[in-house]
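Recall the central idea of this unit: under ordinary conditions, the amino acid sequence of a chain determines the structure it adopts. In this exercise we apply that idea directly, starting from the sequence alone.
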Amino acid sequence: MEDRIVKLLINRVAGFIIFLLVLVLLNIFITYIGFPLIREIVLFFNKNVLTLGIMLLLVVLGEIFMLLDFPFNLPGPLFNAAGAVVIIYFVLDIFELLMQLGEVTLPNIPFGLIFEIIAILVGVVILVTGYISIFKNMPRKIKRVAKKEEGKEEEEEDENRNREFEEAQEEAEKEEKAMKARKEEKQAKPLLKKKVKKVKVRR
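Accordingly, the structure predicted from this sequence is:
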Protein backbone atom coordinates (compact mmCIF):
# COMPACT_ATOMS: atom_id res chain seq x y z
CA MET A 1 0.00 0.00 0.00
CA GLU A 2 2.69 2.50 1.00
CA ASP A 3 4.79 1.62 -2.06
CA ARG A 4 1.85 2.30 -4.38
CA ILE A 5 1.18 5.68 -2.75
CA VAL A 6 4.85 6.67 -2.97
CA LYS A 7 5.03 5.65 -6.65
CA LEU A 8 1.84 7.59 -7.39
CA LEU A 9 3.20 10.73 -5.73
CA ILE A 10 6.54 10.45 -7.52
CA ASN A 11 4.89 10.01 -10.93
CA ARG A 12 2.44 12.88 -10.52
CA VAL A 13 4.95 15.33 -9.00
CA ALA A 14 7.60 14.41 -11.58
CA GLY A 15 5.10 15.01 -14.39
CA PHE A 16 4.16 18.44 -13.00
CA ILE A 17 7.83 19.41 -12.57
CA ILE A 18 8.55 18.44 -16.19
CA PHE A 19 5.58 20.56 -17.31
CA LEU A 20 6.93 23.56 -15.36
CA LEU A 21 10.39 23.12 -16.86
CA VAL A 22 8.92 23.02 -20.38
CA LEU A 23 6.88 26.12 -19.58
CA VAL A 24 10.00 27.97 -18.39
CA LEU A 25 11.82 27.02 -21.60
CA LEU A 26 8.87 28.26 -23.68
CA ASN A 27 8.88 31.57 -21.79
CA ILE A 28 12.56 31.96 -22.64
CA PHE A 29 11.82 30.99 -26.24
CA ILE A 30 9.08 33.59 -26.78
CA THR A 31 11.36 36.40 -25.57
CA TYR A 32 13.71 35.78 -28.51
CA ILE A 33 11.30 34.67 -31.23
CA GLY A 34 8.09 36.50 -31.96
CA PHE A 35 5.35 33.97 -32.64
CA PRO A 36 2.07 35.54 -31.50
CA LEU A 37 0.26 32.19 -31.46
CA ILE A 38 2.86 30.50 -29.24
CA ARG A 39 3.09 33.61 -27.10
CA GLU A 40 -0.66 33.59 -26.39
CA ILE A 41 -0.60 29.88 -25.51
CA VAL A 42 2.39 30.28 -23.18
CA LEU A 43 0.80 33.29 -21.46
CA PHE A 44 -2.41 31.28 -21.05
CA PHE A 45 -0.56 28.49 -19.25
CA ASN A 46 1.36 31.05 -17.17
CA LYS A 47 -1.95 32.44 -15.92
CA ASN A 48 -3.32 28.95 -15.18
CA VAL A 49 -0.31 27.40 -13.40
CA LEU A 50 -2.12 27.72 -10.05
CA THR A 51 -5.25 26.15 -11.52
CA LEU A 52 -3.21 23.24 -12.86
CA GLY A 53 -1.53 22.83 -9.46
CA ILE A 54 -4.91 22.73 -7.68
CA MET A 55 -6.19 20.27 -10.28
CA LEU A 56 -3.19 18.00 -9.74
CA LEU A 57 -3.55 18.21 -5.95
CA LEU A 58 -7.24 17.26 -6.02
CA VAL A 59 -6.72 14.37 -8.42
CA VAL A 60 -3.72 13.00 -6.47
CA LEU A 61 -5.56 13.24 -3.14
CA GLY A 62 -8.53 11.43 -4.65
CA GLU A 63 -6.30 8.64 -5.98
CA ILE A 64 -4.46 8.30 -2.65
CA PHE A 65 -7.66 8.13 -0.59
CA MET A 66 -9.12 5.54 -2.99
CA LEU A 67 -6.08 3.33 -2.37
CA LEU A 68 -6.77 3.26 1.38
CA ASP A 69 -9.05 0.83 3.19
CA PHE A 70 -12.52 1.66 4.49
CA PRO A 71 -13.34 4.09 6.16
CA PHE A 72 -10.22 6.09 5.24
CA ASN A 73 -11.18 6.01 1.54
CA LEU A 74 -14.45 7.91 2.07
CA PRO A 75 -13.01 11.36 1.12
CA GLY A 76 -11.72 9.91 -2.17
CA PRO A 77 -14.83 10.51 -4.32
CA LEU A 78 -15.12 14.08 -3.02
CA PHE A 79 -11.61 14.94 -4.23
CA ASN A 80 -12.19 13.11 -7.52
CA ALA A 81 -15.41 15.04 -8.15
CA ALA A 82 -13.79 18.36 -7.27
CA GLY A 83 -10.86 17.57 -9.56
CA ALA A 84 -13.24 16.73 -12.41
CA VAL A 85 -15.07 20.05 -11.96
CA VAL A 86 -11.78 22.00 -12.09
CA ILE A 87 -10.76 20.07 -15.23
CA ILE A 88 -14.04 20.96 -16.97
CA TYR A 89 -13.63 24.67 -16.18
CA PHE A 90 -10.05 24.49 -17.45
CA VAL A 91 -11.33 22.92 -20.69
CA LEU A 92 -13.77 25.84 -20.95
CA ASP A 93 -10.85 28.29 -20.67
CA ILE A 94 -8.99 26.39 -23.42
CA PHE A 95 -12.10 26.51 -25.59
CA GLU A 96 -12.35 30.28 -25.12
CA LEU A 97 -8.64 30.66 -25.93
CA LEU A 98 -9.02 28.70 -29.17
CA MET A 99 -11.98 30.87 -30.13
CA GLN A 100 -9.90 34.00 -29.53
CA LEU A 101 -6.90 32.70 -31.47
CA GLY A 102 -9.08 31.59 -34.37
CA GLU A 103 -11.09 34.82 -34.20
CA VAL A 104 -14.24 32.72 -34.24
CA THR A 105 -17.49 34.42 -33.35
CA LEU A 106 -20.36 32.19 -32.40
CA PRO A 107 -23.96 33.15 -31.85
CA ASN A 108 -25.12 34.08 -28.38
CA ILE A 109 -24.77 30.61 -26.87
CA PRO A 110 -24.36 30.50 -23.07
CA PHE A 111 -21.24 28.32 -23.10
CA GLY A 112 -20.48 29.26 -19.50
CA LEU A 113 -23.85 27.98 -18.34
CA ILE A 114 -23.54 24.82 -20.45
CA PHE A 115 -20.12 24.03 -18.99
CA GLU A 116 -21.41 24.71 -15.46
CA ILE A 117 -24.23 22.21 -15.98
CA ILE A 118 -21.78 19.67 -17.43
CA ALA A 119 -19.40 20.23 -14.49
CA ILE A 120 -22.18 19.69 -11.94
CA LEU A 121 -23.45 16.55 -13.68
CA VAL A 122 -19.96 15.07 -14.04
CA GLY A 123 -19.16 15.89 -10.41
CA VAL A 124 -22.35 14.21 -9.17
CA VAL A 125 -21.79 11.13 -11.37
CA ILE A 126 -18.17 10.73 -10.16
CA LEU A 127 -19.28 11.23 -6.55
CA VAL A 128 -22.06 8.64 -6.76
CA THR A 129 -20.05 6.05 -8.70
CA GLY A 130 -17.12 6.52 -6.31
CA TYR A 131 -19.20 5.76 -3.23
CA ILE A 132 -20.92 2.86 -4.98
CA SER A 133 -17.53 1.32 -5.74
CA ILE A 134 -16.41 1.87 -2.14
CA PHE A 135 -19.46 0.18 -0.62
CA LYS A 136 -19.34 -2.63 -3.19
CA ASN A 137 -15.73 -3.39 -2.34
CA MET A 138 -16.37 -3.19 1.41
CA PRO A 139 -17.21 -6.92 1.86
CA ARG A 140 -14.03 -7.92 -0.02
CA LYS A 141 -11.89 -5.66 2.10
CA ILE A 142 -13.58 -6.89 5.28
CA LYS A 143 -12.91 -10.47 4.19
CA ARG A 144 -9.28 -9.59 3.53
CA VAL A 145 -8.97 -8.06 6.98
CA ALA A 146 -10.67 -11.12 8.50
CA LYS A 147 -8.29 -13.42 6.61
CA LYS A 148 -5.33 -11.42 7.85
CA GLU A 149 -6.61 -11.70 11.42
CA GLU A 150 -7.19 -15.43 10.97
CA GLY A 151 -3.70 -15.76 9.59
CA LYS A 152 -2.32 -13.94 12.61
CA GLU A 153 -4.31 -16.19 14.95
CA GLU A 154 -3.03 -19.28 13.14
CA GLU A 155 0.53 -17.99 13.39
CA GLU A 156 0.07 -17.39 17.12
CA GLU A 157 -1.37 -20.91 17.54
CA ASP A 158 1.58 -22.37 15.62
CA GLU A 159 4.00 -20.43 17.78
CA ASN A 160 2.26 -21.66 20.94
CA ARG A 161 2.38 -25.25 19.66
CA ASN A 162 6.06 -24.92 18.83
CA ARG A 163 6.74 -23.54 22.31
CA GLU A 164 4.81 -26.36 23.95
CA PHE A 165 6.68 -28.89 21.80
CA GLU A 166 10.03 -27.35 22.71
CA GLU A 167 9.11 -27.29 26.39
CA ALA A 168 8.04 -30.95 26.21
CA GLN A 169 11.34 -31.83 24.53
CA GLU A 170 13.27 -29.98 27.21
CA GLU A 171 11.35 -31.80 29.96
CA ALA A 172 11.97 -35.14 28.23
CA GLU A 173 15.69 -34.38 27.98
CA LYS A 174 15.73 -33.44 31.67
CA GLU A 175 13.99 -36.70 32.59
CA GLU A 176 16.46 -38.69 30.47
CA LYS A 177 19.39 -36.97 32.18
CA ALA A 178 17.84 -37.65 35.60
CA MET A 179 17.33 -41.36 34.67
CA LYS A 180 20.93 -41.65 33.52
CA ALA A 181 22.14 -40.03 36.74
CA ARG A 182 20.06 -42.52 38.78
CA LYS A 183 21.43 -45.48 36.83
CA GLU A 184 24.96 -44.25 37.32
CA GLU A 185 24.32 -43.87 41.04
CA LYS A 186 22.89 -47.39 41.22
CA GLN A 187 25.86 -48.79 39.33
CA ALA A 188 28.30 -46.84 41.50
CA LYS A 189 26.86 -48.10 44.85
CA PRO A 190 27.86 -51.83 44.46
CA LEU A 191 31.34 -50.80 43.44
CA LEU A 192 31.66 -48.65 46.54
CA LYS A 193 30.43 -51.52 48.74
CA LYS A 194 33.00 -53.91 47.21
CA LYS A 195 35.78 -51.43 47.79
CA VAL A 196 34.68 -50.95 51.39
CA LYS A 197 34.66 -54.78 51.97
CA LYS A 198 38.13 -55.14 50.47
CA VAL A 199 39.45 -52.45 52.74
CA LYS A 200 37.92 -54.20 55.81
CA VAL A 201 39.40 -57.59 54.81
CA ARG A 202 42.88 -56.12 54.46
CA ARG A 203 42.64 -54.70 57.93
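The mean pLDDT is 79.
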